[in-house]
Design brief:
493 residues; alpha+beta; Jelly Rolls; 3 domains; seven-stranded antiparallel β-sheet; seven-stranded mixed β-sheet; 11 helices
Length: 493
Amino acid sequence: MKKLLLFFGLLGAVLFFGRMTAGAEEIKAEFPDLTAEQAAKITDGEYGTVYKSDNLSLTVKCGSPIKAAYIIWYENPADYTVSAGEESFSFDGEMLHKLIVFKETKNEFTINCPEGGSICDVYVFENTDFPDFVQQWEEPCKQADMLILSAHADDEYLMFGGTIPYYAKELGLKVQVAYMTTHYQEQPRPHELLDGLWAAGVKNYPVIGIIPDIPFSPIWSLEEAKNLYDYNSVLDWFIEQIRRFKPSVIITHDKDGEYGHGAHQMAASIVMDAVRISYDPEQFPASAEKYGVWNVPKTYLHFWKENAITMDWERTLDSFGGMTAREAAEYCYGFHKSQHIWTMSVNYGPEWDCRQFGLYRTMVGVDEKADFMDHIEPLAEETTVTETESSDTESSDTESSETESSDTESSDTESSETESSETESSETESSETSISEEQSSTSETSEETSQTTAEEENKPGNILLYVGGGILLVVIIVVVLVIVLKKGAKNRK
């Protein structure tokens, strides 16, 4: 009898365990329009294997109902739709990694991209309890606490250290990343870029620039970079990003290009020029008309000598399980596998010590501590900025205030002071620094919006808890039965 009871107890535990883990099984999708070889390319989890069609129409069928689909495009497609029964979604193709959540469960959906496209992988899920690798990108920020201009994908960690892991994930600030160069011709770098940012805690999709990187052909001066790229077009592009995101803080490269890289020098030069004119509506008027103008409160350059700060990247981050900020940056850089041939790392070496920054320009005074957000109030959790808002425009529903500001610039930098009809400036000279006080009128509009997007993470611990509870329940039942049977046997005696 005891053996029989033990058998049923173990059987019950196995059945309970099987029931609890069944939900974790991956749903296999079928692609009736593809050959087995073609289908294998978009189900292998590899960025390098691709299904391509000049007039893409891909039907995906599932053996059981699904709630979401995750599409990884090899390169940005043209406009496309995802249709499932009465539900239809239209996308502009800006996001390489796109998650689609259906209102109702589906057994079939179709991806249509009439102008053609290339797909790396398609995943389907029965619920919204997504695995960690699924990236739930939101649109770029409406307004940013911090705008980071990185010359290339991976510089955001190598040169700026723990900036993104600390401010984006640990503090939860609105960090918008922009890349000056593109890497579309250097697959899989565009995907590594996204994987690293997602791991670093960035939720808003990055902005990609308008000039291509030139791999294996280093640029060793600003003049060389200007000969290769249209400097004025890049300046126009970045001023548009400033006016679009209206950041409280901008962070970018060393004016000497860290180890002398000309593209890094160009990124620094672009920022230095942009922040001096982004609030002038007569400069690059197209973006001023579209987004309004903006006077950036704080601008930092890597290795800038004036108002220098040393960031503490040895602080531990709870959001990274106790890693230091430097270790978290190294972890995120680890996703840039194609760049590991250069044997670089996130470190404090003399050529690119990722802790050293200086306050190039400020409207809120100099720093009292090593914190990019010193004297800056983080934006509210939900912020919307109207397109017509500008720093020198009065609106009936906007409070504008006059702020005395100091522009701090070093005398070894080529710069020009910009005057507007609303600005009074006075100049004082010193042997090392020229500081001008400006009166600028700035206005900010914030309105709360309801957002229903929520992050859901896999929690294996919960499954184990349920399983353990089930096994314990079965054991208790078996013990009770044994006791009852023994008592019955005694009574019979």
